[in-house]
């Protein structure tokens, strides 16, 4: 949720600089205020709570690993559901609070909190269950699942279960006043710039017009090309949603998720509306595994919803100018998402949209690049 | 202005990790939007413009070093004022914009832009003038003056001049509604916390009350102990202001500025008012040097001012609860500021205030620690 992605995280050989990674990413998770925000997300809490307590068969007498335990909540529930032993790994000093929370709830004989990164920590044994709340905006922002994969490959027994077991990414076309708002903000910034150019020339004798193009590019990127967080209303979805990625948490590799590519179609379902951009969200499922399924399958979805919004919201990719479409218009969409070179926890997204109107008219391809910061 | 101070910048031997320093500090300066904010500060621009063009004796035919050139403005003015050669050093990719700005203003034969840190860069010669806009909030936040000292010790001729030549830090007692606002915010956060504790116990069976103390400390630090940016109105100053530090830019060492300590008194000048905290600001002067003085001494002040506010504002250190004082009440104040261990660009401030009321009553010492983040 909190990483701002300013510094270059990776070196030329690809290795991640841990100090920079901490400065950019991990640090916000060390704040109780941030943990509380996530603990107050009822949809998130209910899903994990139910996935554990309605599937005690997976926990009773078992060993569990909680990857990125934060305050320790999932580890504590796992212990309360009957686990024999729980290893709760946390990279930040939040681990100290997790440790005192475990003790205050009398679970110190079951839950062992370990401070360190999942890549470095050493457990005394392999585990029956790996549980983790690793999902970032649009699922993969923060690239925390890499750490879950690492944990799985090192510490999950061959018969072990992943919580959640599956994840999916969704994309749908939307309408939104944000596209006008951001365009106005951009225009305002450029008007202001031209006034600034005049002032600087007249008052200070320096011609800064050469910087207009890079300034406009910087503002364009900031206002128009950076994905936005929003909790959309379902009536903002104007066409069919499509799955752009499916992940089996038991078998996925880092390579499987490094690049997400998909081509899909979406039919506009709303009469006479404006196609203002695309929304991305995710869902995860707790199904256990084929050989050892969950007694009660649980789903956690972050799709637009009137009452059950989550702290993840959806990621909004605005397309300006919006295009007037009608019920039955067809969108052929190519979607591609890769990690930013400067910071593997942030993403670059490319959309290519071909609109076929109900009249038969086919509009030229709209291609746009976005940044998930 | 922009550094957020999240990651640990220094290692155990004191060396600064450059990647972390970039992620925490330098990165915001690479944005044109941020440069423009500073270029739009008329008070700042006028002071530097006047200091150069009203003191052409220091620039005509001379060599100049601009430390942290940003967009290149000071380097450009120095060249326009007649400098023979200007070296403009900039640590971020903003140097590329500075280079194109120099060229667009036909000064490429005079101004050479060098990308790199002042600590690493190598100049072909020593210089007559070092000019730099290095001041952070309350003067020393960002600790950029360290780089100016480094530049001076390596590259300034024995007869050379510093622009600015002198700097001072000021503190005064203030009144401000912010103290009530922040206290309300803190109380709101704690009320919310207690509701959260109940919900978590009732809905999810986990007792998080053990975290109340660390959560309260975290909120207290955030709302009540972190200095605020504000552009105060002069009528918010309720007593005499005092100089807590004076710096001669020609001779100051890093050790001189690592710790700022001062004891001073302030007499309340306003009738029946509330002492709500202290404000800190700075001024700098362009006086040249004794052997080679400025023809026109220029001052740049960030003191509270109705019309001439700057982007630096003042730093506000709130004291809750506020104390009722009257005209003639006396404050004996001990002030101490040191660098944060985790990040040398951020500060820790300690205040010790003894109030003597006009009635003769002397209140117990008010001691408080603050963080300049």
UniProtKB/TrEMBL annotation, chains A, B:
GO terms for molecular function: histone H4R3 methyltransferase activity; protein-arginine omega-N asymmetric methyltransferase activity; protein-arginine omega-N monomethyltransferase activity. It catalyses: L-arginyl-[protein] + 2 S-adenosyl-L-methionine = N(omega),N(omega)-dimethyl-L-arginyl-[protein] + 2 S-adenosyl-L-homocysteine + 2 H(+). It holds the Pfam family PRMT_C. GO terms for biological process: methylation; vegetative to reproductive phase transition of meristem. Gene3D superfamilies: Hnrnp arginine n-methyltransferase1, Vaccinia Virus protein VP39. InterPro entries: Arg_MeTrfase (IPR025799), PRMT_dom (IPR055135), SAM-dependent_MTases_sf (IPR029063). One of its GO terms (cellular component) is nucleus. Keywords: Methyltransferase, S-adenosyl-L-methionine, Transferase. Its EC number is 2.1.1.319. PANTHER family: PROTEIN ARGININE N-METHYLTRANSFERASE, PROTEIN ARGININE N-METHYLTRANSFERASE PRMT10. Ring-like homodimer. This is Protein arginine N-methyltransferase PRMT10. It comes from Corchorus capsularis (Jute). The lineage of its organism: Eukaryota, Viridiplantae, Streptophyta, Embryophyta, Tracheophyta.
